[in-house]
């Protein structure tokens, strides 16, 4: 297993300088413009074809944000969630054929007999975009357990139309990430009805859940498709250090909690080594922690210098991380808006602008707009 690049410090130092409302980065100049407000801990976002945006709120509400930034009343029909700690209504994605089917997929924390778990739900957005209809739970990441941490819950569709979903290790028993009869701490690859996807690496193997595509994952809150290569990139938080970006490969084991670069929150050692035989190294890792959450590759025209870059919303470092990418390699990074606000997610709109969700009780959607250099 080849050694992963050590990233205790940024490859390039903090480069953004704010002046007169303009932020100057290495490859673009922009303004941070308030776009929508009145959201309680917004978590996931999906743009409709007409430019309006569906936004989840962790306590269990789904809102429609208009092109003018107006926030709707909560949509009806949203299923109940386990809204405590890190749990609640989390990610949302449109089906690839949404224009025809109006199908949406939601990921949430759910309370069942035996505790809480990560759940995938499919629904149809009503014609007036005021309600969810035909709501159907598709998959529970069993077994359930008590506790309200590390649900994972990001969703992404691959080029083949298969649905990918992350699940966290649920925090109290990190060893679940290595248990192959357990759906916690995994990357799942599914058909759109929630069944195991054709071609999954463990189909038919005794004692292994057929939904599993990759394992050994801790707290994965970012998942993005690289438009240049068609590969999926998974982003996860380590404990005290050891945050990672991983290139998703069929059957790969990313090592948690056997290996890694972080320590326990107490400062105690967790791992005997940073890597090991048969375990996949991250593309990049961070110590101290930056707590990466939502992720998006930029493909728009508004910021030509950012095209092909990967953006990560960060929580503990309270900023936006820009990564330069060549193929499936990370070649550098730039820290933007660092130390300003907790960011849960970053998404590209159909207008080619970037939208940021702030992780606050009075949460907002912020928009990055080009500015004269």
TrEMBL record:
Matches recorded under InterPro entries: 6-blade_b-propeller_TolB-like, Glc/Sorbosone_DH, Quinoprot_gluc/sorb_DH_b-prop
Source species taxonomy: Bacteria, Pseudomonadati, Pseudomonadota, Alphaproteobacteria, Acetobacterales
Protein's recorded name: Glucose/Sorbosone dehydrogenase domain-containing protein
Protein origin, superkingdom: Bacteria
Species, as recorded: Teichococcus rhizosphaerae
Pfam families: GSDH
Domain Glucose/Sorbosone dehydrogenase per the UniProt entry, residue ranges: 39-367
């Amino acid at each position: 297993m080849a050694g992963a690049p050590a990233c205790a410090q940024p490859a390039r130092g903090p480069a953004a300088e704010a002046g007169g409302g303009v932020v100057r980065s290495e490859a673009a100049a922009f303004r941070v413009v308030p776009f929508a407000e009145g959201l309680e801990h917004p978590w996931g976002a999906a743009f409709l074809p007409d430019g309006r945006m569906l936004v989840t709120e962790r306590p269990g509400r789904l809102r429609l944000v208009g092109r003018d930034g107006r926030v709707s009343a909560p949509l009806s029909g949203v299923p109940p969630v386990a809204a405590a700690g890190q749990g609640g209504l989390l990610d949302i994605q449109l089906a690839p054929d949404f224009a025809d089917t109006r199908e949406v997929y939601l990921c949430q924390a759910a309370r069942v007999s035996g505790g809480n778990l990560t759940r995938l739900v499919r629904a149809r957005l009503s014609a007036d975009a005021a309600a969810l209809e035909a709501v159907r739970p598709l998959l529970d990441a069993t077994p359930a357990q008590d506790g309200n941490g590390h649900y994972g819950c990001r969703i992404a569709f691959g080029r083949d139309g298969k649905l990918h979903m992350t699940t966290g290790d649920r925090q109290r028993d990190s060893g679940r990430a290595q248990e192959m009869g357990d759906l916690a701490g995994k990357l799942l690859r599914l058909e759109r009805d929630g069944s195991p996807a054709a071609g999954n690496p463990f189909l038919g193997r005794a004692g292994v859940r057929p939904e599993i595509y990759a394992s050994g994952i801790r707290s994965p809150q970012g998942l993005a498709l690289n438009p240049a290569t068609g590969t999926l990139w998974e982003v996860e938080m380590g404990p005290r250090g050891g945050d990672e970006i991983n290139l998703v490969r069929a059957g790969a084991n990313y090592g948690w909690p056997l290996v890694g670069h972080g320590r326990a929150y107490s400062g105690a050692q967790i791992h005997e080594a940073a890597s090991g035989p048969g375990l996949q190294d991250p593309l990049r890792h961070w110590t101290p922690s930056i707590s990466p959450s939502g992720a998006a590759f930029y493909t728009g025209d508004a910021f030509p210098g950012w095209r092909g870059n990967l953006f990560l919303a960060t929580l503990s470092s309270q900023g936006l991380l820009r990564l330069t990418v060549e193929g499936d390699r990370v070649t550098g990074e730039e820290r933007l808006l660092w130390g300003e606000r907790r960011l849960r997610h970053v998404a590209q709109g159909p207008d080619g602008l970037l939208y940021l969700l702030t992780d606050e009780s009075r949460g907002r959607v912020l928009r990055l707009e080009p500015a004269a250099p």
